[in-house]
Amino acid sequence: MACGLPRATTPLPTLDTQPFLPSIRRAISVAQSDAQAKPNDPTAVGRFGMVLHAHEQLAGAQACYQRAFELEPKRFDWPYLLAQAAAAAGDAPRAADMFEAALKIQPQQLTARLGLADAEMTQGHNEAAARAYQQVLAQEPNQPQALFGYGRSANQPAYYEKALAAYPAYGAAAFALAQHLQRTGQAERAQFYMAQYPKIKTSAPPLPDPLMETVREMNAGPSRFLRQAQSAEAQGQLAAAVELQLQALQLDPKIAQAHVNLITLYARLNQPDKAAQAYRSAIQLAPNSADAYYNYGVLCGMNRQPAEARQAFERVIQIDPGNADAHHNLGALLQEGGKLAEAAREFQRAIEINPAAANSYFQLGRIEANQKRYSEAIAHLEKAARGDEEATPTYLYALGATQARAGDATRARASLLAARERAAKWGQAQLANAIEQDLARLR
After folding, report:
1. Mind giving me the DSSP string for 241-300?
2. pTM for the full predicted model
3. Shortest CA distance to 361 belongs to which of 407, 390, 324?
4. ∠ CA 102-104-108 to the nearest 5 degrees?
5. CA nearest 361: which of 334, 337, 396?
6. pLDDT grade for 2, boundaries at 50, 70 and 90
7. How far is CA 316 from the centre of its chain?
8. pLDDT at 3 > cutoff 80
9. CA distance readout (Å), 184 to 121, 151, 173, 179, 258
10. What is the C-alpha to C-alpha distance for residues 264 and 292, in angstroms, rounded to an integer?
11. Residues 6 or more apart in contact with residue 406 via CB below 8 angstroms
12. Residue 326: its H or E element
């Protein structure tokens, strides 16, 4: 090395690539050979680290990033990627140190500042985390992750609401806010947010991060295709999502999750035979996959196979007794089969697991109303109608009708008026007309 240039002391990692899938083995071997041929080239060394990082070889990735940083100490990429790898490995102190090193090179880099705040929060350094989140908010006042993080670190639950205002589908913020509201005696508002949570629990605001996206794209294994398939499905590109799942299976036919995902995709594409084959493959690879049985249960329900659907949901509950959706769907099948007492027990169980299960309250209320147990039915239908979702007008309509049957015309009118208003809001013209006819009869 020429005099005056930085010297690296961290050795390159050596890996046995034989345990990897062939496609991953090739990618790692090529990057490793290049780095070994040019051990003082920070780009070659850093790229080796990125390939290792992409395949979750985090210790090796950190060694490469450290060596690249020693060779090129003024480049932001290496301490930043080292921090990300350390955070993924659960080494929050090192992650915090390296995020700080990256910020000395690019002080305004938002994802590094957020990473530093998260690393401090993980260590229980709430004051330091709050300061870091505030610095992000000084740059971007409506940055959802920073709003939520500041709320947690500074014990300011009002910031959970601000985070949700900035990104309404923020699952972690909705859950945290619901818990706060429950603790402070605001049960009705808590139920509203808990009703949203099952639909958005894995959702988080997008955070542009070109460096980490480059790392992810270097993954030569099936996980890259699974990730791309998830994105395609979210955009409604179902055929493309199927092809990506199949590409993942070409690399590794034993990925049970890909078969589980294909059950739903083929069902949505109205290809039940292929969905059933995906189910058989999934349970062969993962006999205790609750997701496989659940997806198959939904498929059987769509295909009017109630006995098979019931067996599938019962199997889900055996594996995962806390699956509220499986209890609800089993209740719906029992209800259709006229087994109302059993159905009511399943709806009740779904509610116990998820107190915000609006449809379970609704179905339980319907059973009770038809049994002329009006006070219990009204209590459950009121809980069903607390939210503001597409089904809420139907819940309010059922509530009004039940109140009318119970002889409470005043409350029935109020509920029906609210139902009509919500139906108009959601563009449900046919339902709004039916409600108007019932209102006319009440008058």
Report:
1. HHHHHHHHHHH-TT-HHHHHHHHHHHHHTT-HHHHHHHHHHHHHH-TT-HHHHHHHHHHH
2. 0.75
3. 324
4. 85
5. 396
6. very low
7. 20
8. no
9. 24, 16, 17, 9, 42
10. 9
11. 374, 375, 378
12. helix 324-336
Quickly tell me which residue has 């769509």 as its tokens. 302
**Who's near 383: CB < 8 A, 6+ residues apart?**
191, 358, 361
pLDDT band at 4 (very low <50, low <70, confident <90, very high): low
For the segment 85-113, the average pLDDT, to the nearest whole number, is 97
**What SS3 class is residue 48?**
helix
Q: How far is CA 391 from the centre of its chain?
A: 22
Question: What is the token pair recorded at 64?
Answer: 């490469």
Report how far residue 102's alpha carbon sits from residue 81's, in angstroms, rounded to the nearest whole number. 9
DSSP label at 391?
A: T
User: Average of pLDDT values for 263-274?
Assistant: 95
State the DSSP code for 354. Answer: -
Asked if 116 contacts 100 with a C-beta cutoff of 8 angstroms, the reply is yes
On whether the CB atoms of residues 331 and 360 are closer than 8 A, the answer is: yes
Residue 391, token pair as written in the block: 């089904």
Calculate the alpha carbon distances from 43 to 38, 65, 100, 123, 348 in Å: 9, 10, 22, 32, 60
Instruction: Give CA–CA dist 139/133, Å, rounded.
Output: 10
Q: Rounded to whole angstroms, how far apart are CA atoms 76 and 212?
A: 13
* 252, 236 contact by CB (below 8 A): no
Q: How far is CA 258 from each of CA 165, 200, 254, 282, 285, rounded to the nearest angstrom?
A: 34, 21, 9, 8, 11
Tell me the CA distances in angstroms from 173 to 138, 150, 201, one per residue in order.
20, 11, 9
Contact 105, 74 (CB under 8 A): yes
Domains of the chain, residue spans: 168-201
pLDDT tens digit sequence for 287-344: 999 999 999 999 999 999 999 999 999 999 999 999 999 999 999 999 999 999 999 9
**Can you spell out the DSSP letters for 69-86?**
HHH-TT-SHHHHHHHHHH
pLDDT in tens, 59-74: 999 999 999 999 999 9
CA dist 290 and 287 (Å) reads 9
Residue type, 440: A
Kindly state the helix (H) or strand (E) to which residue 319 belongs, with its residue range.
helix 306-319
Q: What is the pLDDT of residue 190?
A: 86
Residue with tokens 């080292």: 82
User: Could you give the CA distance from residue 163 to residue 153 in angstroms, rounded to a whole number?
Assistant: 14
